[in-house]
From TrEMBL:
Protein name according to UniProt: nitric oxide dioxygenase
Gene3D superfamilies on file: Globins (1.10.490.10), Nucleotide-binding domain of ferredoxin-NADP reductase (FNR) module (3.40.50.80), Translation factors (2.40.30.10)
Family of the protein in this entry: In the C-terminal section; belongs to the flavoprotein pyridine nucleotide cytochrome reductase family.
Domain FAD-binding FR-type residues, every copy: 148-248
Superkingdom of the source species: Bacteria
Residue stretches making up the Globin domain: 1-143
Catalytic activity: 2 nitric oxide + NADH + 2 O2 = 2 nitrate + NAD(+) + H(+); 2 nitric oxide + NADPH + 2 O2 = 2 nitrate + NADP(+) + H(+)
E.C. designation(s): 1.14.12.17
Alphabetical UniProt keywords: 2Fe-2S, Heme, Iron, Iron-sulfur, Metal-binding, NAD, NADP, Oxygen transport, Transport
Length: 392
């Protein structure tokens, strides 16, 4: 896309979506335009549209801001198109969304004569080019995948390993062909049409076995239902695998993985898969939690490490001791395993100095990912070699 067009789009969006109210207004105009023209599309969306609207504007801002990085943006839109397959979205829906987006932008600019907001033929052309680019890249992305858009799975086990954390195991038939490290959209029967992403904690296998680690987010809609209301026999729906957390085996760079809480799931799936390979780069896996008792999966990771010398597991807890309400002592590492370190995980990892010679993956909550990147960068690690999932 031409740099002048990009600059025009960027200043237009800066003017339109400069605070939370204007962002909410923008998404409301978009969905009003879409549903007015196509009332049946409303059924594709959840009852409460607030977070959907927020995601819509965040995605538009991300694309406009990063338009100069065409490869990155194409990849993002392709994944978004793949993700939208779960709603049964097709070419005609994309076309309708493009029209609604142009209408929303035009109404936001209004009839103001102020130069910052004025709707001009150049702007009209820039937004038309932009919407055409977005919808065609998403539609092509969606069409590039010929596997089913949705997969059904039956819950075969639900284990509450911590008060606020459950390990849920399912079986799907056929197996979902995901890469270790990817995530999938999940819909549970207790919360219809409320899709959330979860990362399988084991690699895909011919038996269709799946395992998710889910933490209950206080005040959340879906995760408390998964942790407290899931029953064996429940039918879940999963969507197209997404995400690009993976080890690059084409060069011999060693690997640094940093996972906190249930963020260890995609890293665990990868080291499990690597344990089936004959040769691997060295992997340092830092596993974090608030208290020592939050490191719920250490025994499995130690187990893998004991038989795979390329893997070093380093437990990290923010607090040195368990909380007073937790009964039972903290786990002691088996002989030869790294003992537990204390502190915020990013700072603990950065204490070792620069990790400039590693390929790096970080997985956890958005705030953990951001603070860990910050700490690594401050310690001299270049951020262009860090992979993480999107910070939705
Ligand atoms: C790529 C990806 C992979 C993920 N994989 C996993 C996984 O394997 N296991 C897992 O437990 N979760 C995972 N998540 C988070 C998950 O998708 C949900 O966001 C989470 O379960 C909360 O959903 P909810 O419906 O309960 O909360 P919502 O109703 O969506 O949100 C309620 C409130 O909680 C806040 N919130 C949402 N998520 C978090 C969070 N993680 N930490 C702190 N505050 C939060 C929201 O901002 C909001 O204010 C993943 C997220 C992404 C983007």
């Amino acid at each position: 896309m031409d740099p002048t067009v990009i600059a025009r789009l960027q200043s237009s969006l800066d003017a339109l979506a400069d605070d939370d109210d204007s962002r909410a207004h923008f998404s409301a105009l978009f969905y009003t335009a879409l549903f007015a023209e196509h009332p049946l599309y409303r059924s594709l969306f959840p009852a409460g549209m607030e977070s959907q609207g927020h995601r819509f504007v965040t995605a538009i801002e991300f694309v406009v801001k990063n338009l100069p990085q065409q490869r990155r943006i194409r990849k993002f839109l392709t994944q978004l198109g793949l993700d939208h397959r779960r709603y049964g979205v097709e070419r005609e829906h994309y076309r309708a969304a493009g029209v609604a987006m142009r209408r929303a932008v035009k109404s936001m600019h209004g009839t103001s004569a102020h130069s910052r907001y004025k709707w001009t033929p150049e702007l009209e052309e820039a937004w038309s080019e932009f919407t055409e680019f977005v919808v065609s890249t998403m539609a092509e992305g969606a069409e590039s995948d010929t596997t089913p858009a949705l997969w059904g799975g039956t819950v075969v086990s639900h284990e509450r390993v911590l008060d606020d954390l459950a390990i849920v195991r399912l079986e799907t038939d056929p197996p979902i062909p995901y890469g270790a490290g990817q995530y999938v959209g999940v819909q549970v029967p207790q919360r219809p049409r409320m899709w959330r992403y979860y990362s399988p904690a084991i690699p895909t296998n011919p038996f269709g076995q799946l395992e998710f680690h889910v933490r209950k987010v206080s005040g959340g809609w879906v995760s408390p239902a998964i942790v407290t209301e899931t029953n064996v026999g429940d039918q879940w729906v999963m969507s197209t695998p997404l995400g690009g957390l993976e080890v690059d085996f084409t060069h011999d760079r060693d690997v640094l993985m940093i996972g906190s809480g249930t963020g260890i799931a995609p890293l665990r799936a990868q080291v499990m898969e690597m344990s089936q390979r004959a040769q691997n780069p060295r992997v340092h896996l830092f596993v974090g939690g608030r208290y020592p008792c939050d490191l719920y999966d250490l025994e499995t990771l130690w187990h893998i490490s004991l038989s795979n010398p390329w893997l070093t597991v380093v437990p990290v807890s923010e607090e040195a001791e368990n909380p007073w309400w937790h009964s039972g002592p903290a786990l002691e590492p088996p002989f030869g395993m790294h003992s537990r370190l204390t502190g915020p995980i990013g700072r603990v990892v950065a204490r070792f100095g620069s990790w400039a010679d590693r390929q790096i993956q970080i997985s956890g909550s958005p705030s953990m990912i951001k603070t860990t990147i910050y700490a690594l960068r401050a310690g001299g690690t270049p951020i262009d070699q860090i992979l993480h999932d999107p910070l939705y």
